[in-house]
Amino acid sequence: MSKIDLVGQVFGRLTVLEVAGRNKYRQMLWKCLCECGNTTVVSLGCLQKGETKSCGCLRRGGVSKNLIGKKFGRLTVVTQ
Predict the structure, then answer these.
(1) Whole-prediction pTM value?
(2) DSSP 44
(3) CA distances from 70 to 44, 49, 65 (A)
(4) CA distances from 44 to 26, 37, 59, 64 (A)
(5) Digit-coded pLDDT (tens) for 14-69
(6) CA-CA distance, 52 to 13, in Å (whole number)?
(7) Whole-angstrom Cα distance, residue 64 to residue 1?
(8) How far is CA 15 from CA 2, 8, 60, 73, in A?
(9) What is the DSSP-derived secondary structure letter of residue 35?
(10) Strand boundaries in 1-80, DSSP class E
């Protein structure tokens, strides 16, 4: 689909997973996995220019930790 292959490359907190198509401006879109565990779709330009560095978790005041399976006393986290 594209001459550029970004799969596996890391941009900030995002690791590129696969091509996600094109936006209405015909820019390549990439599905990315954030270090916090969320996925997001980002344009090629935003990745290359460094405009998008995470799924949005950095703007929300930090990265939320995945606590599923962690124990706190007799309590175990089962969902977030």
Answers:
(1) 0.70
(2) H
(3) 36, 37, 11
(4) 11, 21, 20, 26
(5) 999 999 999 999 999 999 999 888 899 999 999 999 999 999 887 776 555 677 78
(6) 9
(7) 34
(8) 18, 6, 19, 35
(9) T
(10) 10-11, 14-22, 28-34, 39-43, 71-72, 75-76
- Cα 42 to Cα 9, 16, 69, 72: the distances in Å are 13, 9, 30, 36
Rounded to an integer, what distance in angstroms lies between the CA atom of residue 3 and that of residue 12? 23
> Quick one: tokens of 66?
């995945």
DSSP 65: P
Cross-strand partners of 59? none
Report which secondary-structure segment, H or E, holds 45: helix 44-49
